[in-house]
Amino acid sequence: MNLLIVGPPGAGKGTHAKVLEREHGFVHISTGDLLRSRALVGDPIGQEIRKTMAAGGLVRDELVNHALFERLAQADCRKRGVVLDGYPRNEAQAIQLDSFLARRGQAIDAVIELKVDEQTMVERITGRCACGDCKACYHDKFKPPETPNRCDDCGGHLVRRVDDNEATVRQRYKAYSEQTRPVLAHYDARGVHAAVDSSKPEAQVRAAILAAIGLDHSPPPVRRPLTPRPPRA
Ligand code: ADP
Ligand code: AMP
After folding, report:
1. First to last CA, the chain
2. How confident is the model at residue 218 (pLDDT cuts 50, 70, 90)?
3. Which of 71, 77, 206, 209 is deepest in the core (most CB within 10 A)?
């Protein structure tokens, strides 16, 4: 099963994709993480990516697609399935993803849209920090670590992203509203899109996501007994 988690910055995409990876065996792929790694290379492409991300714009499709499709071609993505976080972000990316998967006899099975308003988004992003080692996510107010600046899971140092400031996040929200949200119509037409209110506490959002993709361990539907076939003449 291949999933997309779509939503504005701070909606909780990374938080819930990590749970799907840890507890349900999906491979979590964040195009933001792939691009941040690529940006560490100090060549002209790395510099272009860093500049675009710092300004809150969308990185060129060609660069994002190269990084993503290389990752998707790896063997682990063939097992349980993947959860893509932050991709597709425009119509062209959605079309290219479809073609890539179709060539492998695969498709997107469910699209979870996480909905939050702009004010909630700003509050979540400006208080966000994450472990520099294991990437576990924290929040100054909603999910503080037990020891300041230390990861509860692995003891690593917590870091903040340079683009997690109010001015840039409003720019990222604009890019989301103008270019990414319209892509949901692409999946509506196929009946695979489910919207979840992500302004609720994390546990409630998680339960709604699991229910939307049928992993909520609710009792299986009652099966009707098979009607016996008439004896052959
Ligand atoms: P995204 O990947 O969509 O940008 P994150 O998963 O990184 O968002 O979450 C952004 C911030 O909001 C993080 O600091 C996270 O701990 C916090 N957060 C996520 N979900 C919730 C929630 N339901 N309630 C409160 N805070 C949340
Ligand atoms: P994220 O980690 O998803 O918040 O993404 C951080 C930044 O990476 C975005 O603001 C964009 O600049 C860039 N980015 C991530 N995914 C994509 C994508 N699919 N297309 C274009 N740019 C992307």
Report:
1. 44
2. low
3. 209
Write out the E strands in the chain: 3-6, 27-30, 82-85, 110-115, 128-131, 137-139, 158-159, 193-197
The CATH architecture annotation of domain 3-116+193-212 reads: 3-Layer(aba) Sandwich (3.40)
Bridge partners of 197, per DSSP, are 115
* Identity at 136, one-letter amino acid code: A
Q: What is the residue whose two structure tokens read 């037990």?
A: 146
128 is catalytic: yes
Given the CA of residue 68, which atom of ligand 2 is nearest to it? 19
In the reported structure, the alpha carbon of residue 205 is separated from the centroid of ligand 1 by a whole-number distance in angstroms of: 11
pLDDT tens digits, one per residue of 30-86: 999 999 999 999 899 999 999 999 999 999 999 999 999 999 999 999 999 999 999
191: left (phi over 0), alpha (psi -120 to 50) or beta: left
Q: Going by DSSP bridges, is the β-strand pair 128-131/158-159 parallel, antiparallel, or unpaired?
A: antiparallel
89 is catalytic: yes
Structure letter (DSSP) for residue 227: P
Question: Ligand 2 site: residues with CB under 6 angstroms?
Answer: 9, 30-32, 35, 52-53, 56-59, 64, 86-87, 89, 93, 172
pTM for the full model?
0.92
